[in-house]
Design goal:
The protein has twelve helices and 14 strands. By secondary structure, the protein is α/β, with parallel strands linked by helices. It folds into two domains: about 130 residues, Cytidine Deaminase, domain 2 (3-Layer(aba) Sandwich), CATH 3.40.140.10; about 210 residues, Dihydrofolate Reductase, subunit A (3-Layer(aba) Sandwich). The strands form two sheets. The protein has a nine-stranded mixed beta sheet with strand order 10-9-8-7-11-6-12-14-13, with helices on both faces. Strands 2-1-3-4-5 form a five-stranded mixed beta sheet. β1 and β2 form a beta hairpin. The two termini are about 30 Å apart.
Length: about 350
């Protein structure tokens, strides 16, 4: 199962809206074939493993797969049918299908045909692999994940003279890994103007870029042609999101002339993020990594407007003017997992 997870991760960020899945076939306890789901529309992991085997499995063959085999016909035929046709008699599964209409049905169908099924092997790791898919398939809405980098005293900016980067190289690399995973990344207009980010994944192989949202309620970025988000060769993937009530014809004309997409939302300040999330759902954007500055981060946490938190904490102190935690932010209900990133720590978990 650990090898199946490694295989699944080879498609990191490329399978949306499908999950990442890996499969391993063993005979006599020895691996004889492997496969993974590479991208949407291509064969599933189980089928790829059978193709790699290139023959009928031996009588003692065992299929190990990170996610319950599908039992309905979508873009590809059901994997349950492929397993039965191959004559596999034992299947080991990591996580069950999170889709409420399918969960457990594939396993029940296999058992009904006499296949021995073992469930829950490395279940937590298999579920963690597909946080975005799991949320999307159960709610129909995008997973909104807030990424912040703070000091020990809860600040997003270092004290004067301490430099700009709060966290170290390992944490920076992990953020680029997450940018490659999420189909979209978002920043506020203030962050776009102050930091001029690119929001691409640059340290894990070839540079990649998903959708890039600029949350700009009042279209403050209009006319700022020097921003990387507006001038690099990924600029067609940049979307400025603002309130229709704040839109000036001249600003909208500028974005159009620059080839920058605009979502002009109906609503007000209070409903802005909710309406944006609804638009993401309509556009089939399954998950967004929000890289927020102090004001947006505190607002999102205080209003509990995000589903998942990724907090990188550095052993340093910060500027008192940039707090992210305050009396209105209640972290009760967050189920946190902790990992070490070089000199820093990463706390992550869902909002309860």
């Amino acid at each position: 199962m650990r090898r199946a997870l490694e295989l699944a991760r080879q498609a990191w960020g490329r399978t949306h809206p499908n999950p990442m899945v890996g499969a391993v076939i063993t005979e006599g306890g020895v691996v004889v074939a492997e496969g993974f789901h590479a991208q949407v529309g291509e064969p599933h992991a189980e089928v790829m493993a059978f193709r790699a085997l290139g023959r009928r499995p031996a009588a003692d063959a065992v299929l190990h797969v990170t996610l319950e085999p599908c039992c309905t016909h979508g873009r590809t035929p059901p994997c349950v049918d492929a397993i039965l046709a191959a004559g596999i008699r034992t299947v080991v599964v990591g996580a069950t299908d999170p889709n409420p209409t399918h969960a457990g049905k594939g396993l029940a169908m296999l058992r009904a045909k006499g296949v021995a099924v073992v469930e829950g092997v490395l279940r937590e790791e298999c579920e963690q692999l597909n946080l975005i898919f799991n949320h999307w398939i159960t709610t129909g809405s995008p997973l909104l994940a807030l990424k912040i980098a703070t000091t020990l005293d809860g600040k997003l900016v270092l004290s004067p003279g301490e430099g700009r980067a709060v966290t170290g190289a390992e944490a920076h690399a992990d953020v680029h890994r997450l940018r490659r995973l999420f189909p979209a990344v978002a920043v506020s207009a203030d962050t776009a103007l102050a930091d001029n980010p690119r929001l691409t994944a640059r340290n894990t192989g070839a540079e990649s870029c998903g959708l890039r949202f600029v949350l700009d309620r009042h279209f403050k970025t209009a006319g700022r042609s020097g921003l990387n988000l507006f001038q690099d060769h990924y600029r067609e993937r940049t979307i400025v999101v603002g309130l229709g009530s704040s839109a000036k014809k001249a600003d909208l004309s500028w974005y159009e002339a620059e080839g920058i997409k605009v979502w002009s939302l109906v609503g007000d300040e209070e409903s802005f993020l909710e309406v944006w999330a609804e638009r993401c759902s309509q556009e089939k954007v399954t998950g967004v990594l929000i890289e927020a500055g102090p004001r947006l981060a505190a607002s999102l946490l205080g209003a509990r407007s995000v589903h998942y938190l990724l907090a990188y904490v550095a052993p340093r102190t910060g500027d008192s003017a940039s707090p992210v935690w305050h009396e209105g932010v209640d972290l009760a209900g967050w189920a946190m997992r902790t990992s070490i990133m070089g000199q820093d720590a990463l706390f992550q978990g869902f909002l309860g």
